[in-house]
Structure formats: structure tokens, C-alpha cells
Amino acid sequence: MDGIAGSDRFKLVAVFLMPFLLLFSFLIEVSFADIVVLKDGSKIKGLVVDEFKDRIILSTITGEKTIMKSNMKSVMYDNEEDFLIQKAENYEKSYRYVKAYNIYEKILELNPHCEKASERLYCLRNYLENSARRDLTKDIQKKNNPLSATKEQSSLEQLTETFGIVLDGNGEYVYVKDVNGAASKKLKVNDRIISVWGEKTSYTDAEVVARLFTSFGEVKFRIERVIFPIFPKKDNLFALYQKIIGAELKLCEKGILINNLVLGGCFDKNGVCEGDLLASINKKSTRYMGMSEITDAITSNKG
């Protein structure tokens, strides 16, 4: 992972939509109405554009700010949906899953298209419905093999045994270190795990991420993959960006959508599907980039 990140070659980072992987979406707003209250009493106004286990990313009029949760007292969301999501997440952290489930249901009544609420609701429903069965299975296993309780596998070991996926972390990202079996048809070494069941995984320990994979039976997660396009020869100075990446790009609410994929093109060869998102170009996020800036960034690197 670090080897790819440190390369001087032109890089495109795509976020993938697969049968068992979901789309990584961006929140794009024009107003700055959220307020972060720090422990010293000061307030910062902006828009929460990303949230992780230990920090949030706040977009302000002077640019993005990373604020550690250890320095925060609270966040006052202008949007009711965001406020309810935060409330549901707090219930989950205290293992009050039924209360969290009820709030996610309420969010979907307000906005049936809320991906976060939909994913977490499905996840919690599956967990609650199968919890009694899991407990019964563990009791039977302990009775049949009393020593099994002392030989319990770690979540990382379970993930490798069940899915053939080996995870590792570098502090900021948890990534695929190795992959075997059926998962190797979709995943590649160095793919970054962005979220599992709607829960962001950046700045999280690999064992914790593996536990998210193995706790709910089936799993839906998002990945991010670095791609190196093959550019036209120097004498082809006017090649369109579509020819370089083998797809069209479309600006939508979720971000930069990959559309009209060309079979055999760069994106297709790297496992990208229509409906995936272009996350960054040469380490620069596309969150605030317009289409002209994106296409210029792609075509200016050719040759």
C-alpha cells in the first residue's frame, strides 16, 4: 500500500460498486450550518463532510479542518437527518441496538434514500435476528468441546479462514494484504477498506475492522483502489479523457460518477464498474473539483 502511495506516476483512485461491495458516497452541500463545540468552549462553524472513529473533517470557509473527537465536546447539526444518525450511532456504541434500530427506521421515514440508515438498519436487523442462534451455537460448542473457549480465534484469523481475506493497517487505512478464494475475483492486494456496513474504517485498527466483517453473517463493504492509466503516445496530443480512462465521468450528488464504461479500457481492466466513483486524482480529492478541472487533470498527464 505504501509503495503505491509513494509512486510518482499519475494516480487515479476509484471507489468500487460490486455485488457485495457498496458505493462510497460523498456528502456535498453548499451551506455551512454545522457547529462543532470544542472542550475549551470555542465553536467552529462549517459542514461535517466526513466522520471517522476518532476525528471529523469539517469544511469551512477557509478550507477543510481535521478535528479530533478527543478535543470536541459536541456537534450541533443543522440537518435533522445528521442529528438522528449521530444519536443512533451513540446508541450503537453503548450496545443499545434496539434503540439505534428504531432511530434508523425513523430516518428512513424522513429520507427513504439515506444509504447510511439503510445499511445500518439491515445490519442491525440481521444481528438481532441471529443473536439468539449464535449464543445457542456457542453453548453447544462449549459443551461438546470445553477447551474451545480457550482457543478462540481472533477476528483477523476468522476473516482469513471464512473469506480468504488478510487485512493489515498503516494507521490511516486498513487494506487488503492478501486475498484468496472467491474474494480474489473482486478484491486486489492493497485495496483500501473504506467502510463496513456503513461504518467508516479509516484510522481504525485492523482487528476492529475484521470484527465488523465477521459479526453479522453476510457483509457489505466499500473499497478504494489506486489505478495507473496507460496514456496515449506523445504524438496523440488531443486524446480525450474518455480514451485515457476508458469511461465517461458525470457529476452527481454523490460525487464523480463513472459512466459508459468501455470494455477492455483502463477502468474495466482494473475492475471498475459503472456506478463507481472517482475519489481522487494524484492524491487530490475530487470532492470540490468541477468537471473541467478533473478532465484537465487527466489529459494534462498524458505522454
Write a compact overview of the structure shown.
It is built from nine helices and 15 strands.
Write the layout of secondary structure elements.
Blueprint (H helix, E strand, L loop, with lengths): L1 H4 L6 E4 L18 E5 L4 E9 L3 E6 L2 E6 L3 E5 L3 H14 L3 H14 L4 H30 L10 H9 L1 E5 L4 E6 L12 E5 L2 E2 L5 H9 L6 E7 L13 H5 L2 E5 L2 E5 L6 H4 L7 E5 L2 E2 L5 H9 L4
Antiparallel strand pairs: 1-11, 1-14, 2-3, 2-6, 3-4, 4-5, 7-8, 8-9, 9-10, 9-11, 12-13, 13-14, 14-15
Helix pairs in contact: 2-3, 3-4, 5-6
Write out key terms for the chains shown.
303 residues; alpha+beta; SH3 type barrels; Pdz3 Domain; 10-stranded antiparallel β-sheet; 5-stranded antiparallel β-sheet; 15 strands
Question: Can you walk me through this structure?
Answer:
- The protein is an alpha+beta fold and 303 residues long.
- Among the domains are: 32-77, SH3 type barrels; 229-299, Pdz3 Domain, CATH 2.30.42.
- 32% of the residues lie in helices and 25% in strands.
- The chain has nine helices and 15 strands.
- Strands 1, 7, 8, 9, 10, 11, 12, 13, 14 and 15 form a ten-stranded antiparallel sheet that branches. Strands 5-4-3-2-6 form a five-stranded antiparallel sheet, with no helix packed on it.
- Strand 7 and strand 8 form a beta hairpin.
- Helix 2 (80-93) runs antiparallel to helix 3 and helix 5 (155-163) crosses helix 6 (206-214).
- It is globular and about 65 Å long.
